[in-house]
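[Q] Does anyone have a clean structure-token version of this?
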Amino acid sequence: MEVRRITLSSKSSKAKHIRDKWRSKSWFNVVAPSFFGNVDLGAIPAETTDQLIGRVVEATLYDITGDFSHHYLKMFFKLSAMDGKTAKTLFKGHEYSRDYLRSLVRRRTTKVDGLFNLTTRDGFKLRIAVSVLTLSRIKTSQEKIIRNIMIKIIKEKAVALTMDQFVQEMVLGKIASDIYNESKQIVPLRHVGIRKSKLINTPANVSEIVLAASAPIVEMVEATEEIDGVEEVDDTEEIDGVEEVDDTEEVVINEDTEAVEE
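[A] Here you go.
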């Protein structure tokens, strides 16, 4: 009678060749930009540092400031340089959380939107979306006056401030407060805010700039006047990272030219 032998050597050899990918990875700490105090944003695993450059991490402004009232503001940071086991980041953009937007919808009010492309003093190009909500319906002529106020203030800020300074005033509400204080003389307002922003272009030496910035450039200061109010959600599709809304005026702002497209 023929006896058949069964061997498990093939299976055991395959099992030996299984490699645990996690063992070859290391953990790298991710920190916020220097103008946010180099706050630790967490850790990311990677096999090499080259795999980290270009990644985008998400956090909330609450994670940076520790103020729970900032939990609705989502922040995006791009890993742009390595310093040993620490990954330096560059501000990529921000936006209001969708739940926050949907919870603040009101009827019988007017929402004035402005979409702006701007260049900061140090050559960074940003696209920001500003929203002003009123207490009641307003006329088209009043909307136009409010948009002109947006253009004036944002142009002044873009010419005078660097990228770090502009972002800090933008997310902490200083720019929105300036627009509010001037626009409230036209009509009663409920809320003013920069609901979304996106970094669309950077200088060629951006990695050197990130590594050189090791200390906060400006002190983090809240807006002098709190603005209570709400933001109305817009269900329009996103175009290049910024929501496009009806009756939105796009303004390109830099040191040399200013173009307005309705």
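[Q] Thanks! Anything notable?
[A] The domain at 25-261 is CATH 3.30.479.30 (Tetrahydropterin Synthase; Chain A).
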